[in-house]
Specification:
Helix content is 34%, strand content 22%. It is an alpha+beta fold. Strands 2-3-1-4-7-8 form a 6-stranded antiparallel beta sheet. A hairpin with a 4-residue loop joins β2 and β3.
Length: 209
């Protein structure tokens, strides 16, 4: 059922490349935790966002691409829904992808400040993919992009090759450890607020994409 007076508006954003054999019915089943959370009976019913200017959940059958720009009212229990969706998407993804999830405090007034104490906004970046190597490739690429963007304020891009090589070494070590652990089936998570698009350092305006 729709959640009235929910403490958060939760925005899910990203693009996931899908295997060429994935059909709509299979995608609908994989995304069932999302549309059921929204109180809907099907993906078609739940694909629309809370905001009309957002495209919501779209399946591009020609490009084999899942596009997400979707907001739902919810609570902290949505994090469990995200875990289920990520595991499902791992099964149908063709390549690694990142999903940005932003929890906006519904009681926070952008003009007058929080109604009760500080804003409870939160940001999480999740990763999905067909295997751990694909997932780590996306994590690595995002980290290198963020790092270069920051360091080019002080150094020329041609000077950063050694730094990138060290990052690659760290990810190689992490991958080796992951292969030998029992966590191989779980999508690695990024830390909140630091990846891509200026999500850190203050409250992110709604629907800024």
């Amino acid at each position: 059922m729709p959640r009235y007076n929910a403490p958060f508006e939760i925005h899910v954003h990203g693009q996931v490349p899908l295997r060429a054999d994935v059909q709509y019915d299979q995608l609908q089943e994989s995304l069932k935790p999302l549309w059921k959370y929204a109180g809907c009976r099907s993906l078609a019913d739940g694909a629309g966002s809370s905001y009309e200017d957002e495209p919501g959940i779209r399946f591009d059958a020609k490009e084999h691409l899942l596009q997400l720009c979707w907001t739902v009212a919810g609570d902290e229990d949505f994090r469990q829904t995200l875990d289920e969706v990520c595991m499902n998407l791992n099964e149908i993804a063709d390549a690694g992808a990142a999903l940005e999830v932003t929890f906006y405090d519904a009681d926070f007034d952008d003009e007058n400040g929080p109604a009760n104490g500080e804003s409870r906004d939160d940001f999480v970046m999740l990763f999905v993919g067909p295997n751990p190597a694909a997932i780590m490739q996306v994590q690595r690429d995002l980290l290198v992009q963020d790092m270069i963007n920051m360091m080019e304020r002080h150094f020329d891009g041609s000077e950063l090759g050694g730094v990138v090589a060290e990052v690659d070494k760290l990810f190689a070590q992490r991958f080796d450890a992951l292969v030998n652990s029992l966590e191989i089936g779980k999508p690695p998570r990024g830390s909140g607020g630091n990846h891509g698009g200026g999500h850190g350092g203050g409250r992110k305006p709604r629907h800024l994409h």
